[in-house]
Structure formats: structure tokens, C-alpha cells
Amino acid sequence: FGKDRACHFFIFSWFSDQHQLSHQLQKKAMHLSSYSLTTMSALFAALTTRSVGAFTAASVARTAGPALTTTTVRHMSNGPMPYDDDKMPFYALGTNLALQVGGQGNFKTLLEDDELEIVLEAFCENLRGTNTQDARTVLTTYGPTLNKILGERTEGIVERVKKDGAEFIENFLDCNEEAVKTDSGLVYYPMKEGDGKQPTITSTVEVHYHGTLTDGTVFDSSVDRGQTISFPLGGVIKGWQEGLALMKEGGKATLVVPSDLAYGDAGSGDVIPPGATLKFEVELFKVS
């Protein structure tokens, strides 16, 4: 969609990654004898990918690249930086590692506070070389148990999110008589009927949209940015493909999209949780 639209990854990340991520969730084999344990950061980054198999060969290979990657900057405070400019690059390195490991998401939901303290202790000891146990022995002995724990906790969280989404959909239908639920599970609520062209899967559409989670959190909004966006309808999530095909130019509708028509058990980035149901207000301006 061009450089100026790179930030719109929430909607325009294609759903095909879901099959690969789902497959990765089932990979539990522990082939640690072939691992290169040169950096613990690679292993910790592997731990918090969406694959529950924390220490598989594939997950380590994915995260053994350059340590510094582009991350989303979050402005938490307008106060002074904790160090002077000479030392802040190293603070930035720590920040980057924390974000890769999941400081904004997975650990907060998967681990208790005391468990997180143990994780940080192991990380620091191995990074400094003060660990008293061989890293390979620790991972070989306890890696399978860790995978089992993370798998069970992840599954439980996803199921709770899906249940909340199903309840949201039922409440939405109860409160909006004109809303309809299609065979796929999509909820379509017309807010303004259009009278122009109706898109198909091969169409390019120009829209405004406002996307929220079921708790009202806004994760992406062209309305807030004040700029419409055009894209091929065949390249977006299934809920959008079906929902926009029910609209006509000039129309506006609310789409409530269950997770299997959105980002599934993988979620998207730090903002759309795994298993999340999404709500969009969409206005269709042009079909070509």
C-alpha cells in the first residue's frame, strides 16, 4: 500500500500466516544437542514467539539474527531519560531485548510475579556468565516441562478471550435488532445503506474504518488519522472480505468479526490478542 501506509498492519496483514503459526504451536521436539548457545537473548526471544515450543530448532533459528530490530516506540512519560546520552544507547538495547522477549504482552499474562523474577534471575546470570548450572543441561532437562506449562496457559487464555468474544457477539445482537449473523459467524449491522456499486473479492475499495477490541480499545483507525485508505479486497482478513461484499458505495456498517475470520489464535502484534473478536465501523466510499 506504499510507504505511508506501512502502519496499517492490523487489517492488512494477510491471514495466511495463521496456518504456519498454528503448525508451530504443535512442534514440541527438543533437539538441543545441535543448538548454538552463544547468546541467551536468542533463546529468550524464542521463548516468547507465538510458538509454544519454546526451545525448538526452528524457533531459535528465527530469533538468532541481529539483536537490534525496529520496535514500536511507546511514550510512557515526558520526564527525563534515566541516563545521560552516552549511556542511553545501552538502555535502548535493554529496552529492545525486553520488547523482543515480550515485556509488553506474553510474560504479563503467562507468568506470575515470582515466576517472572526467576526468569529475570536466569537471564541476568547467563548474560553475565555467573550461572552455576550448564545452560544446555537446564534447557534439556526442563525445556519440555516449560513447553507444557506455556502450552496449557496459552490455551487457557485464548479460550477465555474467545468466550468473551462470543458473549460480546450475543449481547451485540440482542441490542441491535437489525444486526444479522451470517453462516460464517460474522455479524453485519447496517448503519447507512449505500446505493452505489457493490464490491466483489476482486475489487479495490476505498474506505474509512475504526477498529476496536470488545473492551473498546482502539487498535487502528483511519478515521482518527483523518485519511481514507484503498486496498484490494482479496488481500484482507476474511471478515472484511465477507462484510464489505454486503455493502454498497456510500454505505456504512458495523462488522463484528470473530477470531477465526480475523487473526485467529495468533493475534497481531502487541495490540490484537490471540483469539480476539474485533469490531469495525466501516464506511465504503468507492469500488473499482
Explain briefly what this protein structure is.
This protein has 288 residues and is α+β, with helices and mostly antiparallel strands.
Walk me through this protein's architecture:
This protein is of the alpha+beta class. The chain has helices spanning 9-12, 17-24, 40-47, 57-63, 88-101, 106-110, 113-128, 135-175, 222-225, 238-244, and strands at residues 180-181, 187-192, 204-213, 218-221, 229-232, 252-257, 278-287. Strands 1, 2, 3, 4, 5, 6 and 7 form a seven-stranded antiparallel sheet that branches. A hairpin with a 5-residue loop joins strand 1 (180-181) and strand 2. The two termini are 16 Å apart. Residues 1-76 have low confidence and may be disordered.
**Number of helical regions:** 10
Instruction: Please mark out the parts with pLDDT under 50 across 5 or more consecutive residues, or reply none.
Output: 1-76
Radius of gyration: 22 Å
Secondary-structure element series: HHHHHHHHEEEEHEHEE
- Beta-sheet strand percentage? 5-15%
Amount of helix: 25-40%
**Helix and strand composition category:** alpha+beta
Summarize the biggest pleated sheet.
7 strands, antiparallel
Write down how many β-strands occur, each being a DSSP E stretch of 2 or more residues: 7
How many angstroms separate the termini?
16 Å
Estimate the global geometry from the Cα principal axes: elongated
- Mean pLDDT metric: 77
